[in-house]
What does this fold into?
Amino acid sequence: MKEREVTDVATLKALADPLRLAVLGVLMKRDPEPVSVKEVAAELDEAPTKLYRHVKQLEQTGLVYVAETRLVSGIVESRYRSAQHSLRLSPQVFAEGGEQPAVLEAVLAAMDLVRSEFQRYFLAGRVDMSPEKRAGKFAHATFRLSPQQLRRLRERIDQALDEVFAEGDYTGPDAVDATLFSLLYTVDPPKAEQD
It folds into this structure.
């Protein structure tokens, strides 16, 4: 499955932890290669014992699955794969009366993960934001838009993401890992101004 649209509370709760998101990220990046919990732990610089319950929670919601098992020193070792290449939260989970606490925790966990990964890579000198390569991009802005402008902006973002997902991963020798975190939202006036 290329992209999974998250619509249920159990999956939102599974995504509401930066460490689970990091585990999922490793499995997505290494796909289609099955990966053991020990290998994930080594990549994340975490103790394997810390990850087992997180992997089980991801497995229970169908975000990961056991792709193969093998016998290692008399112990059965499970090797996991991600069930999707990317995730998108369904607009329905944001609807009023929906699962607001669960969706908020999932979004905040993703923000925390992106923040900590960026910090780690930046401090290690691995982030390239140089203008010569035009590799990185940082933008943070608040706009006042008409409904039509907002719709066009959303459509352009969706179109760009759809194109990248449709192309799939580039596997050439000059491939680079790129991270994109996108959050577009509107803010309603305070309740007192609406009345």
